[in-house]
Fold this sequence. Notes:
Strand 2 and strand 3 form a beta hairpin. The protein is about 55% helix and about 10% strand. The chain is built from 8 helices and 3 strands; from the N terminus they run H-H-H-E-H-H-E-E-H-H-H. The protein has about 220 residues and is mainly alpha-helical. The chain has helices at about 10-15, 40-55, 65-75, 85-90, 95-105, 130-150, 155-175, 180-205; strands spanning about 80, 110-115, 120-125.
Amino acid sequence: MKRPVSAKRPNASTSRGGTGGKSSAHARPAREVFRLSQSPSHLLRRAEQFAADLFARSDLNDGVTLRQTVLMAAIAEAEGASQSDLVRTTGVDRSTLAEMMARMEKRGLIARAAAAGDGRAKSVRLTGEGRRRLAATLPGMRAVDRALLAALPAAQRAAFQSILSELAESADREIATLPDALAPAKQAMKKAGKAGARVAKRKMPMKPAVKRPTKRR
């Protein structure tokens, strides 16, 4: 007499709904891959480096970098501008701009003096040598601008320049919301903290020297 065929027991993996014992409802979503080729910030940085390389390879830079030329052009537009004004105009951060101006002042390209009505601020002007260098490097800067636009189809050049202007205006609005005194205040607090630490160290009582017993010979 044949035994009745028993029903097959369901597989543990299939009974849980999916392979490997994990439900498809709890499957991890695919991680999005970050691609530099699609990053606007990275592409802007590449474009900036492209412009700097074009300027450096030209024979019209007179030993001055593109960023230094931009700074001298900004000073020429607003003679006597403060360093804070130049930060907003050029987009160069405050610490980098201060280092650049220190080097350019040492080379005799710019001169700084206390601003009228505010002894803490510095007004900046071009020296005669700075004006000569700016006049020598502006043709190179214009050539770089033409090369950048020439890399684009003619129908896109006006839109490209308009988009860059909109981004610069957005940066100006963002910077305008930041308090100018924030960075100097932080520096002052840092200096005060260091000075207090030095005073506390001087007032700290010295430990008495421990007298060691002399050994008998």
